[in-house]
Amino acid sequence: STPAAIASGIAAGTRRGLLIKGGAALEMLGKVKAVAFDKTGTLTRGRPEVTDIVALDGTEADLLAQAAAVESGSSHPLARAILDAAVARGVAVPAVTEASAISGKAVLGRVGGALLAVGSPRYAAERGPLPADLAGRIAALEGQGKTVVVLLAAGRPRGLIALRDEPREDAVAAIAALRRAGVRPVMLTGDNRRTGDAIAAKLGIDVQAELLPDDKLAAIGRLKAAGPVAMVGDGINDAPALAAASVGIAMGGGTDVALETADAALLNNRATGVAELIGLSRATLANIH
Ligand code: ADP
Ligand code: MG
Q: Which residues line ligand 1 (CB under 6 A)?
């Protein structure tokens, strides 16, 4: 009977490390026409590492120390990477006060009397024009698929830090499996367009970049015009997009908020689990009808 088929479908998922929260979620998975991935932590490892530091004046160590200070109150993956780099290089991190964040853009704080910000090149450019040589270095680093953040003091650029977040080993296979299933994979990212394009080209996926958290919701809405959409994410910022999708899928290694909001979860932490979920749903529906 139908409930029995659904129960056995859900149980089959559990055996493979795929959590499906109920029959409605199981049925919807097989119907999705597109799968939107939040880049960080789903298609990439979500563990960026500092690769380049450019100081316009002063030393790289000073630039790293100031950036790490501003980032010390942030739980963003970029913040963790910058703090790790400071520790690895034996750089003392000064104290920060008045710390705050602008979601999808920057973190701010006062360090030793100076009002500092670490944020995207786009945010830096909003504060004032970037020197041409700095803009050129940023473009070159982004073309390599790196994320660049700019340190500003009183709104003026002081230098940059580039970070690389490697693609997950299973990302290419996960995307290819979706295409074989006739589902359109799309990468959503708050990263800039050049970085997004460089990573997307490696993975063979369409990309929508420079999305603020609200833009990700709008992107899901647009994709839904062509049919049901699954959203795969792992972060606190992803919860609204997970909820807005026809079916939200949390990466197993992600935050509790993402796990709670989602309709399904890849407890085995494999991106290829998305196509497996879709296959499982279709097989279950075939048994019912
Ligand atoms: P993602 O789509 O990768 O989750 P986010 O929306 O979290 O991206 O961030 C988008 C961009 O905003 C980052 O690439 C970075 O330039 C900037 N940003 C966000 N948080 C921080 C932070 N803590 N420090 C520096 N830059 C940040
Ligand atoms: Mg994120």
A: 38-40, 71, 74, 76, 78-79, 104-107, 118-120, 147, 149, 189-191, 237
Probe residue for ligand 1, chosen from 191, 199, 216, 236 as the CB with the greatest number of ligand atoms within 8 Å: 191
pLDDT of 289: 65
- Ligand 1, closest atom to CA 82? 24
What CATH number belongs to 49-164? 3.40.1110.10
pTM of the predicted model as reported, rounded to 2 decimal places: 0.90
Q: What is the pLDDT of residues 100-124, one digit of tens each?
A: 999 889 999 999 999 999 999 999 9
Domain ranges of the chain: 2-45+167-288, 49-164
Assigned architecture for domain 2-45+167-288: 3-Layer(aba) Sandwich (3.40)
pLDDT tops 70 at residue 259: yes
Q: How far is the CA of 102 from the centre of ligand 2 (A)?
A: 13
The answer to whether 2-45+167-288 and 49-164 have equal CATH topology is no
The DSSP secondary structure of the chain, one letter per residue, reads -HHHHHHHHHHHHHHTTEEE-SHHHHHHHTT-SEEEEESTTTTB-S--EEEEEEESSS-HHHHHHHHHHHHTT--SHHHHHHHHHHHHTTPPPPP-EEEEEETTTEEEEEETTEEEEEE-HHHHHHHSPPPHHHHHHHHHHHHTT-EEEEEEETTEEEEEEEEE-PBPTTHHHHHHHHHHTT-EEEEE-SS-HHHHHHHHHHHT-EEE-S--HHHHHHHHHHHHTTS-EEEEE-SGGGHHHHHHSSEEEEETTS-HHHHHH-SEEETT--TTHHHHHHHHHHHHHHHH-
